Amino acid sequence: MAIGSFPAISAAIAIAVSAIATAYAQAKIGSAGIGALAEDDDLFGSVLILTAIPETIVIFGLVVSLVVAGFI
């Protein structure tokens, strides 16, 4: 394996791990949020915000991958 491919593999791992972590978090938050909404419809805004927060994990993974690959 060439030395030049290690940053690309590292960037791919950063994106993949952050995407898997986000999917896991959103699955747990989403199912709990649906249960909360079944009890009280006024919680929609809070559930929506809590569902969107894990997306920042993917953004951090993207930034790390860009730094590792040398684009930033």
From TrEMBL:
Main location (coarse class): membrane
Membrane-protein topology: Multi-pass membrane protein
TM region positions: 43-71
GO MF annotations in UniProt: proton-transporting ATPase activity, rotational mechanism
Keyword Isomerase tagged: no
InterPro entries assigned: ATPase_proteolipid_c-like_dom, ATPase_proteolipid_csu, F/V-ATP_Csub_sf
UniProt subcellular location: Membrane
Keywords of the record: Ion transport, Membrane, Transmembrane, Transmembrane helix, Transport
Claim: Transport is one of the keywords in the record: yes
V-ATPase proteolipid subunit C-like domain span: 9-67
Family as reported in the entry's similarity comment: Belongs to the V-ATPase proteolipid subunit family.
Protein name, per record: V/A-type H+/Na+-transporting ATPase subunit K
Gene expressing this chain: ntpK
